[in-house]
Design goal:
The chain has helices at 56-63, 98-101, and strands at residues 26-28, 37-43, 71-77, 85-89, 92-96, 104-108. By secondary structure, it is mainly β. It has a 6-stranded antiparallel sheet with strand order 1-6-2-3-4-5.
């Protein structure tokens, strides 16, 4: 049976009604909602459970452009469960699982 937590060590239930982070706050990319913008401040691969070897998720994130200083915006959240996310990273767009997006540290603004 598949876990409803999508590999998160600290699961956030789909459809959570908690308030999204506000401007200037530090948080994780996976916590953002549609229309929110932020700047990448770092990566924390230890924040997610992944079948990938250590360092591989971080390497893939960097290759996708999720580097310190990159500007990101959540363009769309999938239905149901708001997964995956469509994320604009500087000048390109990609789909990213919310669980993996939790490995990206951001500051809103």
């Amino acid at each position: 049976m598949t876990s409803p937590h999508y590999g998160l060590r600290h699961p956030i239930s789909p459809g959570t009604t908690s308030d999204p982070p506000s401007s200037g706050d530090s948080c994780r990319l996976g916590a953002l909602r549609k229309g929110q913008r932020a700047v990448v401040t770092g990566l924390d691969e230890a924040a997610v459970v992944t079948p990938l070897p250590p360092g591989e998720l971080e390497r893939r994130m960097i290759e996708m452009g999720l580097i310190e200083g990159a500007r990101v915006e959540i363009l769309h959240e999938g239905f149901p469960g708001a997964d995956p996310l469509a994320v604009r990273i500087d000048d390109h767009t990609l789909a990213l699982r919310r669980a993996e997006a939790h490995a990206v540290l951001v500051t809103l603004g």
